[in-house]
Specification:
With about 120 residues, the chain is of the alpha+beta class. It has one domain: Nonspecific Lipid-transfer Protein, Chain A (2-Layer Sandwich). It contains four helices and four strands; from the N terminus they run ααβββααβ. A four-stranded mixed beta sheet has the order 2-1-3-4. A hairpin with a 3-residue loop joins strand 1 and strand 2. Helix 1 crosses helix 2 and helix 2 crosses helix 3. The longest helix has 18 residues. The protein is globular, with a radius of gyration of 14 Å. The two termini are about 20 Å apart.
């Protein structure tokens, strides 16, 4: 089990990433990783379960949403996106439909639509 990210650490990392992006700078990798993992942690808290795997490579992957739990191989319900898109979706800076239409989300399976769970409002 990965170490739990405190609200203070998560929000600090998220603020640092947002500040870097606003300044047109590349976020510090450790802060980006912490922000992504914190938002994934919030998603798990909001929608516990194991029927959908949400991947934000290379920083993290979690299983969420109640239903049949997947344990081996590639899950039937997968959502994958990059760190910047995940942060934008999770914080409400971008809508699911817009990111999907732009090809920044790869989603497969009948449960792989997280639009009802986002934004997370950290």
């Amino acid at each position: 089990m990965p170490k739990r990210i405190t609200t203070g650490d998560g929000r600090a990392a998220l603020s640092a990433v947002r500040a870097a992006v606003a300044a047109s700078e590349k976020p510090v990798r450790a802060e980006l990783a912490t922000a992504v993992r914190y938002l994934l942690q919030l998603l798990v808290e909001k929608a516990p379960g194991g029927s959908v795997e949400v991947r934000v490579p290379p920083f993290g992957a979690v299983q969420v949403i109640e239903g049949p739990r997947h344990t081996r191989g590639t899950p039937p319900n997968v959502v994958e996106t990059d760190a910047a898109t995940w942060i934008a979706l999770a914080t409400g800076e971008e809508q699911w439909a817009d990111a999907a239409a732009a090809g920044r989300i790869v989603a497969s399976g009948i449960r792989a639509d997280l639009s009802d769970l986002l934004p997370l409002r950290p």
